[in-house]
Amino acid sequence: MNTRKFVTYTPFLSLVFCFLFSVAYAAGTTSANFLKIAVGARASGMGEAAVGVSEDINSIYFNPAGLGTITNKEVSFLYTKWLDDISYQYFLCAFPVKFKTLPLQTVGFASYNFLYGDIQGADYGGEETKKIKAGDIAFCLSDGIEVVKNTHIGLSLKFVSETLNTKKANAFVSDFGVLHNEEMLDGEMGFGLSVRNLGTAMKFVSENYSLPMNIALGTSYKRNIFQLDDPLTVAVDVNLPIDNKIYYSCGVEYWVVNLVALRVGYRSKQDTGSGIRAGAGVKMNIFQIDFGYAGYDKLGDTFRLGMTVRFGKPTKLRITSLPVTTQE
C-alpha cells in the first residue's frame, strides 16, 4: 500500500473505530458468552494476541481479514478442556478460490460446540430434580479478500444457538476485520482491527440479552533471526468488550528452524489466575499440531489441543456461461 492510499483510508478507519468505541461502552448483560472463549491453541499460547497476526485458519475467530492471506486449503480441529466438566470442540476449514474476474479470496467455514455436561436441576423450593442438559452451538461462514496491496478485509456471518433444558435462544451475528502488512525494520509489521459479535439480541423466555461484542486493535512484528528460517513473532492486542473494561493481550512465538514452536503470552484483567499463557507447536509435512495452556487458580487449568492440515492449491471457479476453451 503506498503512502497516498494509506492516508486516504486512515481517516475513514479512525471514524469507524471512534464510533465503535462509543458503542462498546454501552452497559448491559450479555448472552452467548461462549463466544468470548478464544479459538486456537496457537493464539492461546500467545496470550490470545492474534488480531494483527492472523495468518492462519484461526483468523475466522480473531480477524476474518486474515483469511485473505491464506493461499492453500486448510482444515483444523481443536479440543478444549475447559473448567469443571465443560468441553469445547470446533472444526474449521478454509478454501482459497479464484473467480475469473475477481482477485483471489478465501472462504472459510467454522462450527463450534460448547458442552456444559449434566447440570443438577432444582425446583422453586430448592429440592433437587433430574439433571438437565445445556449447550451452545454456532456456525460461521467467512470470507477474506485483498482490496489493495497488502491490505485485506474480511466478513463473517454466524448463527448462534443456546439451549438450557427445553428452552432455546437464537441469534444472527457478524464479525468484520481489516488487516494490513508492511515490510519494515528488516521484518514484517501487521496492523489489524476486528469487530466481533455484532448482531441481534438473544431472547430467553421474555428477556432479551445483548451479544458479547468486542472491538480489538492488534499489531505484530515478525522476522527471521540468526539468518535461519526461524521466524520470531511478537504481538499485542487491545480489546474493548461491551460488558467489561479494556484488557490487553501480548505474546511471543519462536519457531526453531520452522519445525518446533515455543510460545508464551499474557492477558490482563484476569478475574482468576495470573493471566500467563504458554504453548508449543510442531510441524510435520502438511500437519501442524498445537498445544495451549492457561491456569485459573482454584478453578482449575484449561488445555487446548489442535491439529491443522494444509494442502492443495486455490480452487478456480468460473462465473461465466461460456464453455471452457483450450486456451483456458
Description:
The protein has 328 residues and is mainly β. Residues 1-28 and 318-328 have low confidence and may be disordered. It is 9% helix and 56% strand.
Helical fraction: under 10%
- Which stretches are poorly predicted, pLDDT < 50 over at least 5 residues? 1-28, 318-328
How much strand content do the residues show? over 45%
User: How would you state the average pLDDT, rounded?
Assistant: 81
Mind summarizing the main beta sheet?
Answer: 14 strands, antiparallel, barrel
- Rounded to the nearest angstrom, the distance between the terminal CA atoms is 31 Å
Q: Give the class from helix and strand content and strand pairing.
A: mainly beta
Strand order of the largest sheet: 1-2-3-4-5-6-7-10-11-12-13-14-15-16
Beta-strand segment tally: 17
Supply the number of helical segments: 3
Shape: globular
